[in-house]
Amino acid sequence: MVPRRTLQIDLAPRELPFWLLASGGAALSAQAGVAHVFTLPALFLVTVRARLRLV
Predict the structure, then answer these.
(1) Are 49 and 9 in contact (CB under 8 A)?
(2) How would DSSP label each residue in 1-55?
(3) CA distances from 49 to 15, 30, 34, 39, 46 (A)
(4) Are 36 and 29 in contact (CB under 8 A)?
């Protein structure tokens, strides 16, 4: 059998306070006139450091 490479995803919170980043994302969505539902994926990527690597 040949070993296969797998994808490992690590999620770690950023150093800034979560409430500060969340309020910034809410203010941005309110200023742009976009529903909060559409800004949640972008806000998640801002508040969490995602690292992808092949193991």
Answers:
(1) no
(2) ------EEEEEEE-SS-HHHHHHHHHHHHHHHT--HHHHHHHHHHHHEEEEEEE-
(3) 10, 24, 24, 17, 7
(4) yes
CA distance between the termini of the chain: 17
- Phi-psi sector, 33: left (phi>0), alpha (psi -120 to 50), beta: left
How far apart CA 29 and CA 9 sit, in angstroms, is 28
From first to last of the 55 residues of the chain, give the pLDDT tens digit.
677 789 898 999 888 787 887 788 788 888 888 887 888 888 787 788 889 998 8
Residue 37 is encoded by which pair of tokens?
């539902």
